[in-house]
Design a protein that fits this description.
Elements: E1 4-7, H1 17-26, E2 32-37, H2 49-56, E3 63-68, H3 76-81, E4 86-90, H4 97-106, E5 110-115, E6 133-137, H5 152-165, E7 172-176, H6 184-190, E8 194-197, H7 199-202, H8 208-226
Parallel strand pairs: 1-8, 2-3, 3-4, 4-5, 5-6, 6-7, 7-8
This protein binds D-xylitol-5-phosphate and zinc ion.
Amino acid sequence: MPLKIAPSILSADFTRLGEQVRAAEQAGADWIHVDVMDGHFVPNLTVGPAVTAAIRSVTRLPIDVHLMVENPDEHLQAFVDAGADSLTVHVEALPHLHRTVHRIHQLGVRAGVALNPATPVETLTEIAGDLDLVLVMTVDPGFGGQDFIPRSGEKVARMAELLGRRGQAGVELEVDGGIRSETVAEVVAAGATVAVAGSAIFGDGGDIGHNIARLRAAASPVERNRR
Ligand code: DX5
Ligand code: ZN
């Protein structure tokens, strides 16, 4: 399976959001990544179900919602109603992670769990068998445009190994934060199957299609070696 690219709208021009999402779709993006922040779990406030519904109206691509919020359980239904295809919650926010993952499945969408940089991969040992997606944060969540944390590739490799050991090699392994043409090869070589990128796709006023092609080109030599 080729690498999936999930543009994060956090770095999009919000005055032209529909246009930019359509441009990403035309350029071959695989998913649209929506970063939801509540000003509590992370020190920033972003968008919610209304913007998710607006995106739903302009694209057929799966909408991948990343919930960086303290009480995700309270908002799951609203994001499903808005058209989300996957809901990813943070292990650090949830003492009853198993319950939340099953609620997400009951709502009929894919369930993901995200790990902050300081959270060990082993925290997912018991829940891995229930997941559709694991998101390894490669920056501390909260803002777009941060630098990739060195040695994140090693963590992605440990997560890929854990998933393989648990017989969960089909689970998507997503990386998020500081992914650009200089860093994408390291995480793909380590086993990432989905790359989120915000500033590298929407930033700098660059061309969205060109930026997506650049990411794919940087990833493709290691993809060929991997499979
Ligand atoms: C970080 C978010 C990311 C972020 C990625 O808190 O979860 O999705 O927008 O942005 P870049 O690619 O600019 O690091
Ligand atoms: Zn994200």
